[in-house]
Task: inverse folding
């Protein structure tokens, strides 16, 4: 099965934009001391770069097999967090476990695609999309590719359906207790609520100004845009896996 060359360029462009945006997320989180999923954003950066190179050969920054150990370690990391979440007695951690499961699937899919391209005869130096004519036997384990594609595309549909239900950035302070329980709250510097009847505040500022500044620092980086990154990754991976069948 082959796909049009222009579509590969479109997906590669989307992956580059996703990587750049995730770099910006990490920069904003660090600069403004706001919480974000640092491991997820970092992995999205790497995935975007690698998939862009697999889709368009001239964008490759490393041979396909060179990334395999990284995604193997990432799969173990997210798998460990998924198991911890599912076994936790905390309802917030259990509800957040699906988030780690999705990234576990994405890492396994990346590992599969990299190893399949590396081991397939006659595909050295080519990409998944460019070598889309690989037969299922050349790609090896086509059933696994199909299962991963269906799972990732299904997650993308589910994430798109619930996109509007995610809290906007303005509602971030209300999410702080939940983020703290599931372990995604980044350090945000000293901030405490003034006790009733007290008016003192750091640097002589009024307590309401101090509280507003603290809430601004602790507001999570956009959850909806983070979900859009996951949707883009899931659709692109699903497309690439289908091209290997």
Result:
């Amino acid at each position: 099965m082959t796909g049009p060359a222009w579509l590969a360029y479109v997906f590669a462009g989307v992956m580059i934009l996703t990587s750049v945006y995730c770099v910006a997320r990490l920069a904003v989180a660090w600069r403004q001391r706001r919480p974000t999923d640092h491991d997820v954003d970092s992995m999205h950066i790497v995935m975007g770069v690698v998939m862009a190179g697999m889709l368009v050969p001239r964008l490759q920054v490393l041979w396909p097999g060179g990334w395999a150990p990284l995604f193997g370690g990432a799969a173990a990391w997210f798998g460990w967090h998924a198991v911890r979440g599912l076994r936790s007695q905390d309802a917030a951690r259990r509800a957040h476990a699906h988030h780690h499961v999705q990234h576990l699937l994405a890492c396994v899919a990346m590992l599969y695609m990299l190893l399949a391209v590396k081991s397939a005869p006659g595909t050295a130096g080519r990409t998944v999309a460019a070598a889309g004519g690989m037969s299922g036997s050349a790609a090896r384990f086509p059933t696994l590719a199909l299962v991963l594609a269906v799972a990732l595309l299904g997650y993308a549909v589910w994430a798109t359906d619930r996109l509007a239900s995610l809290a906007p950035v303005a509602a971030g302070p209300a999410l702080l207790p939940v983020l703290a329980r599931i372990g995604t709250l980044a350090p945000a510097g000293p901030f405490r609520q003034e006790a009733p009847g007290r008016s003192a505040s750091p640097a002589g500022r009024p307590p309401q100004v101090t509280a507003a500044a603290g809430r601004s620092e602790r507001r999570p980086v956009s959850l909806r845009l983070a979900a859009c990154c996951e949707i883009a990754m899931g659709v692109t991976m699903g497309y690439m896996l289908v091209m290997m069948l």
Summary: The chain has one domain: 5-169+218-243. Residues 91-119 form the longest helix (29 residues). The chain is about 65% helix and 0% strand.
